[in-house]
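Hi support team,

I've been running sequence recovery on a batch of backbones for a student project. Most finish fine, but this one hangs at about 90% for roughly twenty minutes before it completes. I'm not sure whether the input is malformed or the queue is just slow. I've pasted the structure tokens below so you can try to reproduce it. Let me know if you need the job ID as well.

Thanks,
M.K.
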């Protein structure tokens, strides 16, 4: 998720502060992000108002399709606030030392690759669900999809409780087999059976639609096309996400088709009536053979029916999230004409609560500065002879001086991986900082650049 944040600043040259989830990596098309306004201030960081990404499609009539049981008062979903309607109690925020302290963020113990996926029963908290099934809880805050490469799969990111670590860690729930849904408007002189027959024998064969299912549905129309009745019967067609039905087709028994541009992610959000971060139940999850993401835990749901909203969220505490604010300093190399990174500063909050505002006295739980001298091309730039001795006595932050830009990037990524932030904050983060980090890592062969995002990537994605 991406938030544009107005900030009080003295220089008009500074860029807007941005809060970016780990999904919003520097790789084009790697995730779907949504810009939303929030009230932040440099002195007192307040809770962002998070909202579910609005559905995107080129047929506005799609937004109005809803079951009769759906409460119309909550529409449109895109205008709802971040949380479910229920107000959840939250954990008391422990006292955090002020900015002028050493870094005190808890570090993960040495963990082998995919440690928590090897035995789900001992790694996660499982509860009984309607007989023989088991479920664990995920507090979700972001999701994305890749329709081009993995149609019908939705990636949901959040936090789950890890029993071995006795705290909440990052998690990705991969929901598979999510189908598309479209609606065929039955003509006045036609019947449901005739529409199903025409779609099965003509339309489905023409557009190579296989493994579909039809059922009758009554829907309401909320826009200004007077040719479409306000309340009418439709034929609801469920079909695989990898197959496509063109927009605007008509037939002898149906006069219009709606919802053909709805994505699997949009369908999951609408079917579950998600209006922002909340608790979800993951029913009978399984471990993947190999992880696709950098999250601590990765789970697979074989059907969207295995994803259910928690019925009693008021009994659960909202887990803490980790935010990392970064700032880069670059200098142009006169020989290569490239912007080299000479310093990276960071501030981390490992107990960020989505439900509470932060006080200026406890907004950070750790901070660091990593610095290097410019490359050999900058002959006129040298550090003061007593610079290292002076910085040894500097206690307002954790300072580290390294020999080269490569060492700087490796040291920064070590900290980034340890913190495992859910959200990254910075000025002009996507347009400059992330792009500069990825390009410099590629230039000097630092192979861990994809850990800036949530998905495992290779250079072919650049």
């Amino acid at each position: 998720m991406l938030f544009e944040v107005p900030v009080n600043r003295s220089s008009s040259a500074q860029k807007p502060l941005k809060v970016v989830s780990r999904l919003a990596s520097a790789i084009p098309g790697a995730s779907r992000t949504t810009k939303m306004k929030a009230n932040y201030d440099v002195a007192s960081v307040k809770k962002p108002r998070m909202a579910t990404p609005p559905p995107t499609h080129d047929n506005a009539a799609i937004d109005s399709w809803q079951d009769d049981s759906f409460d119309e008062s909550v529409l449109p979903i895109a205008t709802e606030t971040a949380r479910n309607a229920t107000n959840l109690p939250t954990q008391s925020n422990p006292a955090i030392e002020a900015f002028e302290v050493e870094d005190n963020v808890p570090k993960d113990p040495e963990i082998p690759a995919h440690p928590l996926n090897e035995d789900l029963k001992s790694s996660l908290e499982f509860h009984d669900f309607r007989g023989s099934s088991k479920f664990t809880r995920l507090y979700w805050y972001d999701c994305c999809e890749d329709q081009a490469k993995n149609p019908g799969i939705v990636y949901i990111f959040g936090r789950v409780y890890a029993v071995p670590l006795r705290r909440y860690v990052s998690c990705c729930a991969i929901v598979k087999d999510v189908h598309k849904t479209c609606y065929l408007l039955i003509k006045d002189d036609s019947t449901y059976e005739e529409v199903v027959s025409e779609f099965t024998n003509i339309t489905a064969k023409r557009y190579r639609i296989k493994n579909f299912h039809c059922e009758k549905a009554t829907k309401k129309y909320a826009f200004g096309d007077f040719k479409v009745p306000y309340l009418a019967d439709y034929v609801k067609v469920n079909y695989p996400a990898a197959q496509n039905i063109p927009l605007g087709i008509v037939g002898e028994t149906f006069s219009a088709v709606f919802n053909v541009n709805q994505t699997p992610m949009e369908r999951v959000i609408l079917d579950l009536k998600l209006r922002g971060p909340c608790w979800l139940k993951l029913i009978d999850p399984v471990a993947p053979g190999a992880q696709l993401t950098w999250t601590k835990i990765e789970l697979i749901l074989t059907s969207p029916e295995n994803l259910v909203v928690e019925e009693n969220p008021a009994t659960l505490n909202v887990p803490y999230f980790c935010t990392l604010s970064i700032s880069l300093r670059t200098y142009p190399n006169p020989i290569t004409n490239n912007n080299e990174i000479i310093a990276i500063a960071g501030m981390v909050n490992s107990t960020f609560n989505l439900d509470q505002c932060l006080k200026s006295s406890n907004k950070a739980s750790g901070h660091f500065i990593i610095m290097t001298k410019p490359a050999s091309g900058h002959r006129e730039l040298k550090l003061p002879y007593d610079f290292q001795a002076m910085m040894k006595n500097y206690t307002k932050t954790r300072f580290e001086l390294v020999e080269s830009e490569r060492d700087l990037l490796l040291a920064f990524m070590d900290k980034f991986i340890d913190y495992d932030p859910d959200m990254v904050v910075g000025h002009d983060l996507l347009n400059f900082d992330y792009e500069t980090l990825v390009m410099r890592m590629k230039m000097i062969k630092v192979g861990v650049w994809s850990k800036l995002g949530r998905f495992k990537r290779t250079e072919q994605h650049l």
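--
Follow-up from support: It reproduced on our side and the slowdown came from queue contention, not your input. Residues 349 and 364 are 5 Å apart (CA to CA). No action needed from you.
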